[in-house]
Amino acid sequence: MRIVVLASGSRGNATIFESGRTRVLVDAGVTVKAARERYRDATGADLDHLDALVLTHAHGDHVQHARRTAEVFDCPVHLQERTARQVELPDATRRVTLRPRGEQRIGALRLGAVTVPHDEAQVALVVRDGADEAALVTDLGHIPAHVAGALRTTRTLLLEANHDPQLLALAPYPASVRARVGGRYGHLANAQAAGLLKKLGRSLERVVLMHLSQSNNTPAKAREAVRPALRSAVRLMVADQDAPLVLASARAKQLSLFS
After folding, report:
1. Cα 169 off chain centre by
2. At a CB cut-off of 8 Å and minimum separation 6, what does 54 contact?
3. What's this model's pTM, rounded to 2 decimal places?
4. Any idea where the domains of the chain sit in the sequence?
5. Tell me: the pLDDT tens digits for 20-63?
6. What pLDDT digit, counting tens, does each position of 158-179 carry?
7. How does 54-63 read in b/e, with b if 16+ C-beta sit within 10 Å?
8. Which residues contact 121 (CB under 8 A, 6 or more apart)?
9. Which CATH class is domain 2-240?
10. How does pLDDT run across 224-249, given as a tens digit for each residue?
11. 3-state secondary structure string, the chain?
12. Using an 8 Å Cβ cutoff, are 137 and 255 in contact?
């Protein structure tokens, strides 16, 4: 499995999961042009097809370019029923209902949806291809026990570390917005992300910190909070709002050591 994070942050989110010739885009928070440019920058290849677009929830930073993306790539869109009622898509688009606690096969990939607490109907995703397993967990205000349970065999975890509470308290937002971001249905603080990581097993090999607030966090603060929760062998990275990040298959890298 290869993962390409095209964008992660409050201005737009988009991540591609690939296995063989199967390519799935999760969220369409950037333009088709930006997605194609960043994919080429990251991989050296053209973003010439999508087998599916998956929408985790209906907030604009995840769906603002969903209609154009579905139109250009002529691909089915997987989304929850509540999300479907809020997102405009081309009439000809095939809509596939994304059901929490279920699993859907898209080519070589299997996607499992896990409900998480947010102020919009939101799911985390567990993605498998038979040899590897990854998960994308963002846009949640706290971490129920079932979320940690769903990640027990994950090798690569893309996990929200949205804010530092001290920076959030000083943010130039109305008090209601600060309360929403830091509340039980808002976004994860760095320490909450670290708390989840402490609960995960030894299968975890890579962590990518996602959806960092540009006003209320810094990569350095996020790393400092999370690193002590991880085994020394776990690789820690931070995704960016404006620059892509590519992750080759952790499994393939392991196998190459013995070939």
Report:
1. 26
2. 24, 25, 26, 27, 77, 78, 79, 98, 111, 125
3. 0.95
4. 2-240
5. 999 999 999 999 999 999 999 999 999 999 999 999 999 999 99
6. 999 999 999 999 999 999 999 9
7. bbbbbbebbb
8. 57, 58, 80, 82, 83
9. alpha beta
10. 999 999 999 999 999 999 999 999 97
11. CEEEEEECCCCCCEEEEEECCEEEEECCCCCHHHHHHHHHHHHCCCCCCCCEEECCCCCHHHHCCHHHHHHHHCCCEEECHHHHCCCCCCCCCCEEECCCCCEEEECCEEEEEEEECCCCCEEEEEEECCCCEEEEECCCCCCCHHHHHHCCCCCEEEEECCECHHHHHCCCCCHHHHHHHHCCCCCCEHHHHHHHHHHCCCCCCEEEEECCCCCCCCHHHHHHHHHHHCCCCCEEEECCCCCCEEECCHHHHHHHCCC
12. no
Give residue 166's identity as a one-letter amino acid code: Q
